[in-house]
Amino acid sequence: MSAEWQIRNEICDIGRRLYAKGFAAGNDGNISYRLSDEAVLCTPTQICKGFMKPDDLCTVDLKGNQLTGKRPRTSEVLMHLEVYRSDPAVKAVVHCHPPHATAFGVARIDIPSCVLPEVEVFLGIVPRADYETPGGKHFAETIRPFIGKANTVVLSNHGTVSWGPSVERAYWHTEILDAYCRMLMLARQIGPIQRLPVPKVEELLDLRERFGVGQDPRRKEGGPLCVNTAFGDGDGTCNACSADGPQEVQESYEELVTRITAEVLEALRRRG
Ligand SMILES: [Zn+2]
User: Fold this and answer.
1) How many Å lie between the centroid of ligand 1 and the Cα of residue 27?
2) Fold of 3-190
């Protein structure tokens, strides 16, 4: 089997996993792979990702013109091409609508960092792109600010897109994100979300480099390690806050009792 047909089979396998996980309802989602500087393999429009056959796939050039295939290419391939044109290291892109991660996009709540080791090691900061009508040039451009700085992006009111050096890795990033978003939702229901201290996050970023995932953009560019720390309102000590600016001072229990007692006494005094 040629290398291209192996990739076609791999895209069909990942399509089955996307569909089985509930990440792509109906005909949702699309997958692509950069075959060369001139050709990208991609899924066609209007096909269920759970039931694709290798010869259903098509190829396009880096501008989105269809080169081969019996079915028309997905309109959302323009977003994939935006990634390929901007980052030569990327070989594969996966776009879908995983429910937990998409819920963050629908609520327009940004994904917090410094909570779960796998996310720090394999994803880093997951930004959220502005909403735009799916399929067109403006839609594709919404992710441009994050290429080279992230490998997974939440699309407001739409879904997610992730990329990597292989189809499996691009898919894997989405799976890690959706599991993380589910854990965040569950944790928020049973208690406040606690953050990892900055030195422990630094250890995870060391691990990331040892695993060959590459240097985290937070280290390259010197930005804050911990972002969106307000989500799930932690324990008030916020270990991450040294890297994230000053935190609001929280009232202690004693201060709260003293203040309410004074307010009650003042109200009684005014009445009496
Ligand atoms: Zn979509």
Assistant:
1) 9
2) L-fuculose-1-phosphate Aldolase (3.40.225)
Whole-angstrom Cα distance, residue 19 to residue 83?
23
| First-last CA distance in the chain | 92
Nearby residues for ligand 1 (ion, Cβ within 5 Å)? 159
Look at residue 254 in the predicted model and tell me its pLDDT.
Answer: 67
Whether 248 is catalytic is: no
Catalytic residue among 4, 10, 38, 76: 76
Ligand 1 centroid – CA 210 distance (Å): 34
Question: What average pLDDT does the chain have?
Answer: 91
Residue 221 CB-density burial (10 A; 0-12 exposed, 13-18 middle, 19+ buried)? exposed
Measured in Å, residue 162 CA sits from the centre of ligand 1 at 12
The structural domains of the chain, with segments of one domain joined by +, span 3-190
What's the predicted TM-score (pTM) here?
0.85
185 C-alpha vs ligand 1 centroid, how far in Å?
23
User: How far apart are the C-alpha atoms of 84 and 105, rounded to whole Å?
Assistant: 24
